[in-house]
Design brief:
The protein is of the alpha+beta class. The chain folds into four domains: 206 residues, no CATH class; 110 residues, Rossmann fold; 153 residues, D-amino Acid Aminotransferase, Chain A, domain 1 (2-Layer Sandwich); 94 residues, Aldehyde Oxidoreductase, domain 3. Helix content is 27%, strand content 26%. The chain contains 20 helices and 29 strands. Strands 5-4-1-2-3-6-10-8 form an eight-stranded antiparallel beta sheet, sandwiched between helices. The chain has an eight-stranded antiparallel beta sheet with strand order 26-23-20-21-22-27-29-28, sandwiched between helices. Strands 14-13-12-15 form a four-stranded parallel beta sheet, with helices on both faces. Strand 1 and strand 2 form a beta hairpin. Helix 5 packs across helix 16. The radius of gyration is 28 Å and the shape is globular.
Length: 677
Amino acid sequence: MAVYQKVQVRSTKDESLLLECSWSLFNAPPSGNPWQSIDIIFQHVSSPGAAELSNGSDHIYVLNADDEHSPKRILPESLGSVKAFQFFLQCLRATVVSGSEAGQCRRRLAKLIVPLQKGYIVRSDIVPLRLRDCQYIENAVSFAVPLQNYQGSPVSLSDNAKNLSALFSAAAAGLFLHPNSEHDSDAELEALSMAVESELENRLSFPWILSGNAQRKTLVLVDANTDHPEQGGTGSGFYLAAIEVGINVVVFDNAGHWLEDPGLDYAHWREAFMPTRLTNPVSEDLDDHITKSLKAYGKPVDGIVTFADTYWPYIAKVARQFGLQTAPPEGLRTATNKYLTSVFVGHQAYRASNVDEALNIAKKHELPYPLIVKPCDGWSSEGVSRVDSPGTLEEAIRSIDISRHGTEFVIEKYCSGPEFDANFILLDGEVLFFDICDDLPKSADVNGPSARLITNFHELNSVYPSALPAQEIKQIHDSFLNTLLKLGIRNGIMHLEGRVEHSSVEYKSQNGILELCPGNIDSTTQPPKPWLIEINPRPPGMTASHITESTYGIDYWGVAVLSAVGDKPGVRALSHTFKHGPQYTCVMAFIPADFSASCEGIFDSDDICADLMTRRPDLAKHISRCACFIKRGQKVPHPNTGRNTFLAYFNVFSRAGRKEALDLVRQVREEIRYSFV
């Protein structure tokens, strides 16, 4: 391994030397994959001004110090992009050893990923997205811009051994690797490189460079996310995915929305904002308002989408009018109305609009308890209650917020089987990807009928992937797919929720942790049967989508954006899971509010996620993502009001398996600290 070049970092103030490194190429064997992996070792030489290196990059410049000719300054454009230059600086800085080991020679390994296929990148951040939570990668940075074209030619290391510009400019991304140990011998660096090569084989073995010429398209979004990102909003995934895949977004929402102001920091998330009258519950003339805004926009669009379930029938009517891809409006109306869905799949369900109607229905049909009561036009499990007796039916109905969900609600039997979420990526009726997770028993499931204080069904723990028996998972896949196709839904991401009636497994407590275990089955037990709860013609919530992204390598929001504009090659490319399946078991743990009736429900703590991560770094290393939704001084609804009362969430993972993942979540819940006044 020969040293090819020295690099100096100098101050722009007095041109004093801050850092000197050498770099060399570490040749990995050809892999036969559609990318070239180039290893670069950065080695510390000296750092007389190391203290100044952490003050940003505005006051420094970088030189090729021992060039055959005079030293040349390395500029961002020299390496192809500002992002590549910043990555390069990170590599140089990381060679500096501080503390008791200061002064020691340190070497760090980086990789450049060069596409070997001609075409455009399916999404500009695809490499770091697929490498999220890789245990060998300290940082993954994309150098690409949306829809960037690549020639697909390999870099000749012999010809370009001393040319940093050629190496970085050809690369789509850079990977900065974790140190393998306290030592950095050639053998250890080689072992680390090979471990990463194996991960790349697993994670990048799909067509992420698409042939042909990329065309930028325009997508209309009806109903932007209500909550501002700085106020706890989690809707950024859609907008950021649209940017990465090179799609312009035109937002239709009520005047005064935070995305309307062109001077805000987030204005670049959309190309245009069209004030459009939107209401919840839905106004029957919604399609007229959307049509009016489309005509006022006046430019061609390639698709129209919403993530507000109850808007879908109206969106479909408008899409047909403008010749855009859509499912049948009548199928979407059935899919997004809880009563119509239940009747469609054969449940004995009843619809009512007030307490008296519900009591009469229960009495007339001698409905057996327990029952489920839920709004026909509901979302996020709001207003969903388990009813164990006629005396609690009225209370359940009054917990529905009719200002948000309307007056109509459905009454049907309570299915006690294990609950799950099932997600499909469909393309012309073909299932490109299917995943299923276990929703562990919720508050209305785990309390005994005599002691039940909270009867709602807000999420607590969702575990990916599911531990249901393979045969039951196949039944769910086939049954739910059949329902979607009968409704005429053949494209997009479908998020369905259900239970398994007469399942062969049930939840039992093992060392204080609920887990699926074989049930008590006798000869009279009926065979397992999927029980559909609801259909959502959209990706699962942002937090659940994050788990699918990190666990399987698939970002639902990127797929949803491409599907909405009819980009079939892009949808197919982004629907490839990791070659060897899920990289770990991951649990989405929601932290609901818990306060006494005497409290006002005013949150009186700081960021509970940051607090836990600081106090328990051993748990922090198992947390992929987390967020605190509430800020000090904010009022939280009481848990029995039917509204979501989540304070925070944690996506907790384990590479050892499901048992450890659930135990880690138990520890996270025990370590949460917050108070109300």
